[in-house]
Please model this.
Amino acid sequence: MDGFYAGLDVSTQGTKLVVIDLSSSEVVFVDAVNYDTDLPQYNTKNGVNQNQAEGVSESDPKMWIEAIERVFTNLKESDVSIGEVRCISVSGQQHGLVAIDADGNLTRPVSKLWNDFSTLEECKILTEKVGGDEAMIREVGNTQRTGYTAAKIFHMVRYEPENYAKTKTLFLVHNYINFYLTGDVRIMEPGDASGLALWHPGTSKWSKSTLEAIAPDLAKKLPEIKPSDQSIGTISSNLAQQFGFASDCKIDAGTGDNMYGAVGTGNVEPGIVTISLGTSGTAYTMMESPFIDPKGEIAAFCDSTGHWLPLLCVSNLANGYNEILKIHDISHDEFDEIVEKTPPGNNGKVLIPWYMGERTPDVPQASPVYFGFGLDDFTQENLCRAVLEGHILNLYDGFKQMPVEPKEIRLTGGLSKSPVWCQTIADIFEAAAVPVEGEGAALGAALHAAWVWQKENGSNISLTELVNPFVVFDESGRKIPKLENVQVYKKQKELFSALSARVRGQKGADPFALRNELL
Model:
C-alpha cells in the first residue's frame, strides 16, 4: 500500500493539490492557488470574470490549467518525490461547460459555470419541448435548472452557432482537466454527468428527446460515459517530462466536487449526511439505490463508487450571515454570543432568507420574507437568531424530502467552526453534528485515486477502510441534539414550511395559527 496519490480540486475560486501517503496514512503535501490573487492577469473576482451581464458567471479554462501547472511545479520542488505519485484524480466544480474542437482548442473561450443564471429561458423552452417537469424528470431524473449543463449547451446553440459547429467535444470541468492530464482522453463518468440534465442517473440512459430538443447532432459531441471507479489512462508524456511524473502514473476517472466531498468526509456508507456550509449550502448522503425526487428539487446524482448521492443545494446560506456581520460590524464570536441572548424559536419570529434567487425551492426571482416581527422586534439579537435559524430551516425544508434518517451529520465549510451553528443544525436535523477537519474534495480525490489504483493492482481494500484513517473530526465541536430545543424546532419547522409554501402560492397550513402554537 506504499506510494503517493494525488487529488486535484479545481473549484470556482481556486485549485488545490493534496498528496497522501498510504503507508503512513498521512497528508504529505498541500498546495493551493487562488485565482484572484495568484493569477491576477485573469481579472477575476471570486474566480469569476468581472463586468459581465446580470446573471452571467463565466471563467477562462486556461486559468485552471495555469493553476494546475503552478501546484505541479511546487510539488516538483518539494521534498515529496513526484515520480512516486502512482495515480491522480480530479475533483471539479460541477455543471460548468467547456467546449473544444478536434485538436483540443477551446471553441468557446470561456466556460459557463454552475452559478450562471442566464439560461432560465433555455430551461423553460427545453421543459416545454419535452412535455413539462414530470416528463423531464422521467427523461433525465431531474428538472431543467440554470445550474445544470443542458441549458448552457442550448444557450450556445441558440446564440453562438458558429462556436457550436466548430465543437468536437462538450466537457464538464473535471473532464476537461482529465483531457489535459492524459493529452487525449475524452470521456465522462456517472457522478458529474448526472448534473448534465441529459442523462438519467437511475437508468443510465441518455434522453433522446432532450438531446434532440437542443440540437440534432448533440449526441455526437458528448463523450462516452465510463465507470467512475476505474482509471482512464496514464499521464501524458509531455506532463511526465515537464514535471517528473512516472510515465505509468494513472489518471482516475475523477468526478464532481460534491461526490469527492462525500469521500473526503467519510460519507461512503448509508446513514451519513454531509452538510457543506458555504456561500451556498449542500446536504447529501450515499444511497445504495437511486432516489429520484418527484418534485425535482433534490438533485438525482450518482456518486463515485457505483452508488448514488442525492443532493440538496440551496443558493442562500453564508451570504445572509456574512452580510449581518458586516452591517452590524460584529465578529464570528460576537455573533455566537448575541444569538445566545435569544431563545431557540426566536419567539415566533421567522426569516425566509432568500437574499438572491433560490435553487431549492426553485424560486429564481426570490426575495427575503420577515414573519412575526413587531415594530420593536428588529433588534440585533432577534435579527441574528433569525438569520441563523432561517438559513438552517431553509436547508432542512429541502432536506426532509430525502428518504434518510441521518445517523450522523458531518459538517464542512467555515461555519462548521461555530458552536452555535453546529448546535442549531443538530437540534433542527435531530442528529449528532460534528465538524470535519481536512482538505475536503481534494482529499476525497486523493483517497479515490488510491482506492482505484489499489483495486487495479490486486488489493481488495474497501473504500471505507482506506478513508477512515484520513477523516479527522473536531470532537470538541461535536453537538448532540438538546431535547428542549428539538421540541421547539419541531413546531418551527412546520411554521417555516407552511410560510414558504404560502409565499410561493401553494397550499399549506395557516402560518399564523402555527405561530400561536409555537408561542
